[in-house]
Please model this.
Amino acid sequence: MDGGRVLSAAGVAAGVDLCLHLLRRDHGSVVANRVARLCVVPPWREGGQATDLPVDRIAEEAGPGTGASLRRHTAPAIGVAPLAYRQAFRAKASAGAGS
Model:
C-alpha cells in the first residue's frame, strides 16, 4: 500500500512487490522490469494473492485496530476510502505495466 510518505507490505513477496513499485514510481517501468528480470520475479502481480489483505487485517497489522478506524483515518489523509484507493492504484499500475 502506497500512501505517499507511508508505504507498507505484508510478507516477503509483498515486500519485493513494494520495492518494484518504488523503482517503477521513481525510475520508470523499464528500470523496474530490468530489476525484476535480474531477480527472477514477475515485474507485476495482479491482486488476489495472499498479500492482498482485507482492510481489517491491514488495520490490525498497521495499528488502527479495526477496518472502521482505518477507513475513518485513511479517507481524510488520502482523499478516498481504502478500497477505492486499492482499486485506483491497481488500475493505474495496470495501465503502466505495459510500458
Summary: The mean pLDDT is 76. The chain is about 65% helix and 0% strand. The two ends are 21 Å apart (CA to CA).
